[in-house]
Amino acid sequence: MVQVRFVGTLEGLKVPKCEEYWLGVEWDDVTRGKNSGAVSGKQVFEVDTPGAGSFVRYLAVEKDLNRRRTILDVLKDRYVVSQKETNEVIEIDVGQRSLSSSQSATATTSTTTSSSPSHSVSDQEAMGIISSLDVMDVTDCLVAYLDLPKQFDNVKQVNLTENLVGDWGSIQKMILHTPNLTILNLSKNRFIPAAKKSAAKTGDVEQRDEGSALKGGHSSLEVLVLNDCALTWSGIEEMADVLSPLPSLHQLHLAKNVLSTNLTYSPSISALLQSVEVLDLSMNNLSRWEDVFTGLGNMPSLNTLYLSSNKLPDISWEVVKTYLPETAADGTAKSAHAQSPFPRLSTLSLLSNQIASFSTIHFLSMFHNLTNLRIEPHTQQSTPTSSGNTAPIDYFLPFLMSQFFVSKLLIFFFRYTCL
């Protein structure tokens, strides 16, 4: 997949057919890139990853760009099939009942009359069928526009994975048109940052942005999945500016993005995360505990946090003491931190990070409600066991409890056998 960073001509540069429209793109797969957005010594557009940029003639991809579709057109094609054979009238594929389930069901109505004419489904009939759906799955269907002509009260799950959705305004409008929506999967889409969206203008490519004027509507959304969307923290903040508040949001999945340092707990992000209980930040580029504590430690409802496959190092005492609350003799708080970070956190996953010291386990005791911990030592710095393999520390808290009971048993044994 690519992200469009530039649309325009390259006149004045030593490029064949420079007067034509060109697209400057950044590839997700860096190996497919040809440059970093520069041509003939001039920087035309910026890329997040050096060497991931390319220039593509607009005419070469115009046919593909014109294949972009509205969600309503895709729903009609997928769930409303006009049959020209006499034995089949309407087929309704209701797809997966759950985004996490592989079970599917198909309901088909048919006639037994062999001489009846072919039946074409009217727009009114099609809308009736679509309105009855509780699950809409349009994975990889080139959906670019989410214009819904009416409110769909029955829809509870929407899967838009791997499409061409590019702006948060259209997402918000869709949420408002599906008031009972509980699960929304937007994985593998690419959301254009506001600054770059305003710069990418062309008469041939329509830019649709519904804006944030739709705030204030009711939302029942509980699970929002944004895995593999190339999102940065600024992108998350743009999303929060448009979508917040989502008062029923309990799970937010942001795995396999490009989230790194400089996480700021802005008012819009604070409003978005207010009710989140499960947060998945696996497979990102987090490398500083300060960002984790400052940016996420104040989430009032968070009880499960996934930080696997990041670049987090050992926790140092200098970091820990900064976030521990200090109290005066009268019991009042002396520091800005009135309580320890993550007050309700009970489950934490730190697999595949750069943690090598047992001191990190000790410092995690500042999370007073932590009961489930998944962690393993960094392989390059771990102490080998007698067999030469790295000793895992997975589920370390239950291990510590077992050691506690073993020590109690030994004390009991020696006390009564040595008398």
Describe the protein.
This protein has eleven helices and 19 strands. It has a nine-stranded parallel sheet. It is flat, with a radius of gyration of 27 Å.
**Any idea what the radius of gyration is?**
27 Å
Main-sheet strand order equals 10-12-13-14-15-16-17-18-19
Distance between the termini: 75 Å
Structural class: alpha/beta
Largest sheet: 9 strands, parallel
Number of DSSP strand runs: 19
Q: What ranges have pLDDT less than 50 throughout 5 or more consecutive residues?
A: 82-118, 198-214, 327-336, 381-396, 399-404
Mean pLDDT: 75
Fraction in helix? 10-25%
Topology order in helix (H) and strand (E) letters: EEEEEHEHEEEHEEEHEHEHEHEHEHEHEH
Percent of sequence in beta strands = 15-25%
Number of alpha- plus pi-helical segments:
11
Estimate the global geometry from the Cα principal axes.
flat
